[in-house]
Specification:
alpha/beta; 2,3-Dihydroxybiphenyl 1,2-Dioxygenase, domain 1; 4-stranded mixed sheet; 3 helices; 8 strands; VOC family protein; VOC_core; Glyoxalase-like_dom; Glyas_Bleomycin-R_OHBP_Dase
Length: 120
């Protein structure tokens, strides 16, 4: 068995597709308007579909998971993020962790937690 995809909930599919393309270079693999599969296995699903399926309210910024990406030139990445999406809310700005690895954490447009770090 292997993990096939990771699904996150979004309120505006088109804005989220653009965000993940602009920031991470992810391309659309499959798009049925309410569920979109991007390269690297990330799936975006419209919030209403998920809520209707679960019969529960979606809790944004729940801090129960994060998407993790690696980037060698993290300073260039942060500049791009700041230029393209200045409204992004940071959990922590660019910093070094205890292992000397540079990381930045922020929320996507819907409150999904993202970490970008330099490779170890």
């Amino acid at each position: 068995m292997r993990l096939k995809n990771v699904l996150i909930i979004v309120t505006d599919i088109d804005k989220s597709k653009r965000f993940y393309h602009d920031i991470f270079g992810l391309e659309v693999v499959l798009d049925n308007n309410e569920t979109v599969i991007l390269t690297e296995g990330l799936v975006l699903q419209q919030k209403k579909i998920w809520q209707d399926f679960l019969k529960k309210e979606v809790k944004q910024k729940n801090h129960a998971s994060e998407l993790y990406f690696e980037e060698r030139d993290i300073e260039k990445f942060v500049k791009k993020l700041e230029q393209l999406y200045p409204e992004v809310e940071y959990v922590n700005k660019l910093m070094k962790n205890d292992f000397g690895k540079k990381i930045v954490r922020f929320y996507d447009l819907d409150g999904n937690l993202i970490e970008v770090g330099t490779p170890m």
